[in-house]
Every structure is written in C-alpha cells, then in structure tokens.
Amino acid sequence: xxxxxxxxxxxxxxxxxxxxxxxxxxxxxxxxxxxxxxxxxxxxxxxxxxxxxxxxxxxxxxxxxxxxxxxxxxxxxxxxxxxxxxxxxxxxxxxxxxxxxxxxxxxxxxxxxxxxxxxxxxxxxxxxxxxxxxxxxxxxxxxxxxxxxxxxxxxxxxxxxxxxxxxxxxx
Length: 171
Fold this sequence. Notes:
Alpha-Beta Plaits; 2 domains; 60% helix
C-alpha cells in the first residue's frame, strides 16, 4: 500500500474519532471568507471548546459511512469546513449563525446532532436556543419561584390569624 493511502486512513480515523465524540457537528460552505475572518472564526471556536477544521469531502464521507451516519453525498461538495462541538450542543451552531449574520459569505450545508443527520434549518433553530447555562438559570429561577409561592400559600392562614388577633387586641 502507498504512503498516501495510509495517510488518508489516518485522517479518516481522526475524523471518525472527532465525529464519534461530538454532540453537534455543523458542515459549512466557507467560500469567499478572508484569512482574517477565518482566523477570527477559529479563535471563537477555540474559546468555546469546539474544533473548526477543513477536511477533504471524500474522507469525511468515508468517515460518516463508517460511523453509520446517513447523509446525501451532494451535501459534501465544494468547499466544506466542519465545526465540531463536544461539550455544548449549541455552541458550534451559535458561532456559525452569528458569523453568517454579520458576514453572508458563509452558508450552512447540514449538520449532525447526536449521530443523526439534520438539515441547515435545524442547525439554525439550534442556534436560536439559549445556552446551557441560561437554561439552567431559568430552571432554577422557576423552581425557586415555585418554592417561594408555596411558602407564601402555606404561611397565609397563620398570617391571617395573627392579623385578626392583632386587630382584636388593638380594639
């Protein structure tokens, strides 16, 4: 076997490893962005704990088929970069959609959510969701509000009795 074939096998193994660990993967067409825009985008992905790489389409297609993930081959045509999120499901989609909002050169092709291929609309919908921290804060606020309301309801009869006794005592 040739050295080139072995190198490609290693790249496919790297892609499979990254894709199998990922919670969210966004495939984007990066045609037309400048080097400075690409550098800025990579920095944002690094800060969010995501990977942003460019692989050959055929190698990504081979890795996806080895992992059993179905996606139409025509999705992986042209210039394709991949944003991979490991910890936060929303981060890659949010970063890509924010970049597209400010710069219309990039476009989402499709994505993978928890091992299932989804279209670009689902990735955009995912980007509109609040972050994990915001959702946890909202849940805790709701739970805290419910507990406070329960305390007020339970203490109301005793408070009413105290007010009535105070009114009688002041007469």
